[in-house]
Write a structure and sequence with these properties.
Blueprint (H helix, E strand, L loop, with lengths): L33 H11 L15 H13 L5 H10 L1 H6 L10 H10 L2 H19 L8 E8 L12 E7 L4 E7 L6 H11 L6 E4 L6 H9 L3 E6 L4 H10 L7 E3 L4 E3 L2 E11 L7 H4 L4 E11 L5 E10 L10 H6 L1 H11 L11 H24 L3 H4 L3 H8 L3 H8 L3
Parallel strand pairs: 1-4, 4-5
Antiparallel strand pairs: 1-2, 2-3, 5-10, 6-8, 7-8, 8-9, 9-10
Helix pairs in contact: 1-2, 1-6, 2-3, 2-13, 5-13, 6-13, 7-8
Length: 412
Amino acid sequence: MKTSKPLNQVNFADASALNLNTKVVNNSESSETILSKLLEFASSVPDFRRSNKGNIRHRLSDIIMLMILSRISDCVGRADIIKFGKDNLGRLQKMGMFKNGIPSEPTLCRIEKGIDALAMADKMREFAESFRKKLYKDSDGLEIICVDGKAMRGTVQQNGRNPDIVSAYSPATRIILATEACEEKSNEIKAVPRLLWKIDITGKVVTADAMSLQKPIIDLIRERKGYFFIEIKANQRALCYIIEDAIKGREPLYTYTPDSELAHGRIETRIYNIYDGLDMIADTEKWGGNLTVVEYISETVKKSTNERTTERRLYLTNLPTDTPTLGSFVRTHWSIESMHWSLDVNFQQDKIKRKHSSAARNLDTIQRVVYSVYSIWKGLRKKVADKRKGVAELKRHVSTSFTTLIKFLSQN
């Protein structure tokens, strides 16, 4: 494909001017397509540049769309993004973008660093919510929201730590609902409450690891009329030891034993024991009263050696003891780890270096938008085979041509 000629540094079109002759991708396309929602997201991010001074040659929304479209097409670094833009400049211009050509790599760097990271993350939340409502199938079950943090190992802050991003993830739709960055001298304990205020948790189950088993977080979930399902570990030493001692020799109220599974050369049997926590925990006022304890036991046999291992975990929840398939929340929470794995493997997040925390946070937001785009596409499809396609397979498919990419994003 042809590469665009060097730009004239004196005479160029106003980046913000309307092009009335622009050929839209499809004038009749629904305003509810993935592409239209992405354009809406890109246009909603506030521009940090001084619009009344200097020469702004590229609209911020165009640059954001370039970063999204190129990453959907399996581009990773800034050089790959620039090449993608130059190869498809004509097509992008027909969509009304980049009348002055593709921006340079230093411009991309300044944009990544300069965008208000918190504002763009909040706009991502609005984008995700618009599709979550459409994709979530209301049923008799409880909607689950998984909360967990992930370090961006490609960036090192001044204190020597990696930026930590806490996510709210919907396993039913596979969409990342919202994110919150841990402050430089803080951790997830402070970030989780801020994250929970951003989303609606009324009547939903919030699952999290042991770090989130804190009284302020529990109180907030109860205050907002939600449910929690959180692992108990030694960070709450007294609570953990009291429950461990209390369940010894005690018969559970309910026991669930799903069928054994054969995977990765191992046979795994899972057991879920349900206990009433009210008569186990002395300080019930601290934790808000009605409590249920879930004991998870995993027994694994390695087929090649017949080696046996046993794993045991404890969880605390305010759901009733007779909640159907209460133990299934244990495995559902692990889906957020799968999402984090995909960010590292399919989007190479930990390998991409960023000097500034703001650039790292904006990169993270773009990557999570792209991850959600794949999930939204699969959720909108009716064919079972399409729903089972992995991120890597979809990336290979849409990277074949710009036409395929736009067709991919025109789902509604």
